[in-house]
Write a structure and sequence with these properties.
alpha/beta; 6-stranded parallel beta sheet; about 15% strand; elongated
Length: about 450
């Protein structure tokens, strides 16, 4: 099948490469000329495990192509994906200007029947707006060309996007057009052989499914963080609690890890966007508002632990940070807890020595030349002369460190663990002041 993908970010590039890998003829369109030229040279704009060789292979065999020529892209595919960003607006709602701009572009150049697929995460009712925009442009041109707007939300995890796309749990398709249903089944047939993963529904239900899924996962995270706060105050260990409730098959172990708050490109903006949608129809989404509130507060905990330990005297201190990305296996720092921590430390007069396996360039891009930030080449060099270590991201290389080296490198043996990677008793026995998330009993032992 001939497919065009508008927008070459996390979603668009992964989806395009995966479709090309099974034999579809895919054309990628983006307005960024440098990005397109880099992709043709095999330079991938994002870090995503397994993506680079996939893009290189499919480009070399001619099934994946890149262009800035929108007319060429529209002409190419009978199926047109819209996979551009929907950043949060000032009021928290999803900004649809890029989605609608692509819709207008498609309508401007289309001369034959198209299936237009909303792959971007968009509020309920967006398909109607896209349809209206296309109909408006066609009417202005005096053309009557058949089209259908389909909702096909993505459910990709950054760091596992390639495998998620290749072996999806489910493929949600919102359309009531039988011709589109047949085409979507053909498009996704290579990923649907083991058992039927396709779930058809109306467009608005498909749009809400995406938000509901992300908000459910965000709710589980905030719930566990709320429990972790109680555990600290009650002298309980949230890790024991996690095992206790995770063993219940109705709850399970996924997304019940307490930490220093969720981030990334999806959960924060999707919760905010659904809250905004609810407000627009005069419904107060109390649970979603609480999820966001808990997450905001949780991102302050790392600084609070440091500030309390040093009795409010952080000026002149140097803090080592391990992990800058919002999660492992990505260089994405959007809404990362590390950003909240660093800004608070700088405001308190501290300096930062940071290391991340993949997000160093992204951190440099965000903060530029900051005299209070040193980006270090290794996790060990980030420790030298620092007054404390903070773990923000649970990269595997941080899970079993040399604690003797850490103790000898730091000027004071303080570890703030935002991901509960370490054994409190072990660190207590080695003379560390260890602060984790929801492990109240261990903190009391350290401070005793």
């Amino acid at each position: 099948m001939k497919v065009t993908v508008f927008g070459i970010g996390y979603v668009g590039l992964v989806q395009a490469a995966i479709l090309a890998s099974v034999g579809h003829d895919v054309m990628c369109v983006d307005i960024d000329e440098q990005k397109i030229e880099n992709l043709k040279k095999g330079i991938i704009p994002i870090y995503e495990p397994g993506l680079t060789p996939l893009v290189e292979e499919t480009y070399q065999n001619g099934l994946l192509n890149f262009t800035t020529d929108a007319e060429k892209g529209v002409s190419h595919g009978s199926i047109q994906f819209i996979a551009v960003g929907t950043p949060p607006d000032e009021d928290g709602s999803a900004d649809l200007k890029y989605v609608l701009a692509v819709a207008e572009t498609i309508a401007t150049y289309m001369t034959d029947e198209k299936i237009i697929i909303d792959k971007s995460t968009v509020p309920v009712g967006t398909a109607d707006k896209v349809s209206a925009k296309i109909a408006e442009v066609l009417a202005a041109k005096g053309q009557d060309v058949a089209f259908d707007v389909v909702s096909n939300p993505e459910f990709l995890k950054e760091g596992a996007a390639v495998s998620d796309c290749m072996k999806p749990d489910r493929i949600v398709v919102g359309t009531e057009n039988e011709k589109s249903r047949v085409a979507m089944r053909e498009l996704y047939a290579p990923f649907n052989r083991n058992h039927d993963r396709m779930i058809f529904m109306d467009v608005r239900s498909a749009e809400l499914t995406k938000y509901a899924a992300n908000c459910m996962l965000a709710t589980k995270i905030s719930f566990m963080n709320e429990m972790s706060n109680l555990a600290e105050l009650l002298g309980a260990d949230i890790e024991a609690v996690r095992h206790g409730i995770g063993s219940d098959s109705r709850i399970g172990y996924q997304f019940i890890y307490p930490g220093c708050g969720y981030g990334g490109s999806c959960f924060p903006k999707d919760v905010q966007a659904l809250v905004r949608t609810a407000n627009e129809i005069d419904y107060k989404p109390a649970l979603l508002e609480a999820v966001e509130s808990v997450n905001y507060a949780q991102k302050q905990k790392l600084f609070t632990h440091l500030n309390n330990h040093f009795k409010g005297e952080l000026a002149g201190k140097t803090i080592a940070i391990w992990g800058l990305s919002f999660k492992p296996q990505t260089d994405d720092m959007r809404e990362a807890s590390s950003i909240v921590l660093m800004k608070a430390l700088w405001e308190a007069g501290a300096t930062v020595q940071a290391y991340d396996p993949e997000a160093m360039e992204e951190c440099q891009r965000i903060f530029g030349d900051n005299d209070n930030l040193a980006l270090m080449g290794t996790k060990e060099s980030a420790l030298k002369g620092a007054d404390a270590l903070v773990v923000c991201t649970e990269w595997s290389q941080f899970r079993a460190p040399d604690f003797d080296l850490i103790g000898n490198s730091l000027s004071t043996k303080v570890i703030v663990d935002g991901r509960n990677l370490y054994d409190p008793q072990l660190l207590n026995n080695r003379g560390f002041a260890y602060y984790a998330i929801g492990r109240g009993d261990s903190v009391k032992k350290v401070n005793a």
